[in-house]
């Protein structure tokens, strides 16, 4: 069980700058079967010296540069990590410059010269400094670089970046030449002193220069090498802008480039067979092989996903079980009036919904239509509230599963009323040439109802509420009309000097929006007798009216009908008298018989008289040998006249019963 090193381990070769550096392994123990995961962490030792890109560095600094100016220096690289990596820089003693050591985001160090005392070319034309890089090992390892500084005449204006830090993100495996960022600086000088050249700062690591390229004229930073998220997630790039003056001015900026992970690594499956061949009598649950899955990508790109296939086990579900839709009548055909909304939590075809209008009422299919894909309900025709107020239908929502599942949703469409019907006058009828004349006697007092205008409105509710106003009259002071009932009253007592004929024009208006109206013309005659009215009507009738004799024929018809009715009633009376005489003679012929077996009762319904209320009727019960019998008056809805004669007489009302007088005979006993 010992784990041995089989060859020399070089941490920098295995892991580079990654820390910690670990190697993973798995150990399988048999009988009993157990799996152990392990990792060997390769610890770093200080076996590498810091290294500068070159052994010398040259700077040109104008004597006019003010104190506090900073000048980046080339950074040293140390492949060791942790405390063994590059930790600090040291600068040789001098009267003009100090060293400022900065730390990048990734923890690496870089140094900048800071001018503490202004330079004087006349006093000293050049300076020689030594920069030392030290790591944190014990003992520390170091590297040196010679810095040669030339003091030159002044360049008035140095370039200035429009921002000190730029941020950009780029996907790993981005093709070479892809634009990452564009930096920009300006210089107020003219000529060469104002021309700007962009370049990497001296302390930009060599690895960065291999991965990115900078256009010296445009300041465009592009991808040059192959980026790998798994190797480095963030790059901190230092750039500078320098003019072309004799003593060039320099400006510095920083670009932070974030590398975005893409799913560029396939999962690695390691299969360790521990039990092969498998015996046919192996017990259920026996481990046959061990599977180990790894993925170098990060976050979701590194998960192993198990797909669960969908089964159509969910019926469509509507947001509402029923819908009530209100549509104004006289609508434009083809408008959408409702969207039936439903969802299905299944996936794919099982969640594809279709909408169907069930044809319960055959008229619904001619009036409504539904979009099969999105459930939009359309109105195909124009509706009329006066024709039909409500439509009921059922919408079926079905998924595309096998077998499909469905849900039914009820829809009720209510047609709301518009004021599209004017009042219609029923009396007096407006579409006839016959003149309707109402009669009122002279001297009639105020408040007497003369006639009534009858009208209807086919609309509903407030749209059908009719108001009546007197629009025009022969004498406006004589008559008034009820605002809501159309009744025409006398406004004052009729005088002898009032005109005999009056024509009223009544305006009928509903209360819809817009208001619709109609008018009715009423003729009123002031006369004592109908003859005067008829005479007046004859006078006012048009000479060329072919029906001018209609009144005469109506009166003649009334007289003829009255005469026929009189003759009929006289004939009935004579017939009744004749029958009464026959029964009288029959009675006289049977008087000699004292006792006779009573015959059956005869039920005779009396003729209702004009003064008898319609809910009363007379019943007469006679025996063959009756001398005197009772006429029974029965109350409304009494079940039978065969009850107690005394009770019936007691319940009768005065004046509504009579006695029929005959010859007194022996009446049958109640038992008989």
Instruction: Specify the CATH class of the domain at 424-526.
Output: Mainly Beta
In CATH, the homologous superfamily of the domain at 424-526 goes by the name: Cadherins
Number of helices: 6
Quaternary state reads single chain
Round the mean pLDDT to the nearest integer and report it. Answer: 81
Uncertain residue segments: 592-672
What is the spatial order of strands in the main beta sheet?
Answer: 3-9-8-5
From the N-terminal CA to the C-terminal CA, the straight-line distance is 132 Å
Q: From the alpha carbons, calculate the radius of gyration and give it in angstroms.
A: 60 Å
What is the structural class? mainly beta
Note the overall shape: elongated
Sheet having the most strands: 4 strands, mixed
CATH architecture classification name of the domain at 424-526: Sandwich
How much helix is in the residues? Answer: 10-25%
The share of residues in extended strands comes to 35-45%
Number of strand segments:
42
CATH topology of the domain at 424-526: Immunoglobulin-like
What do you see in this structure?
It is a single chain. Helices cover 11% and strands 37% of the residues. It is mainly beta. Among the domains are: 32 residues, no CATH class; 97 residues, Sandwich (Immunoglobulin-like); 101 residues, Cadherins (Immunoglobulin-like, Sandwich); 100 residues, Immunoglobulin-like (Sandwich), CATH 2.60.40; 103 residues, Cadherins (Immunoglobulin-like, Sandwich). β1 and β2 form a beta hairpin. The longest helix has 40 residues. The C terminus is likely disordered.
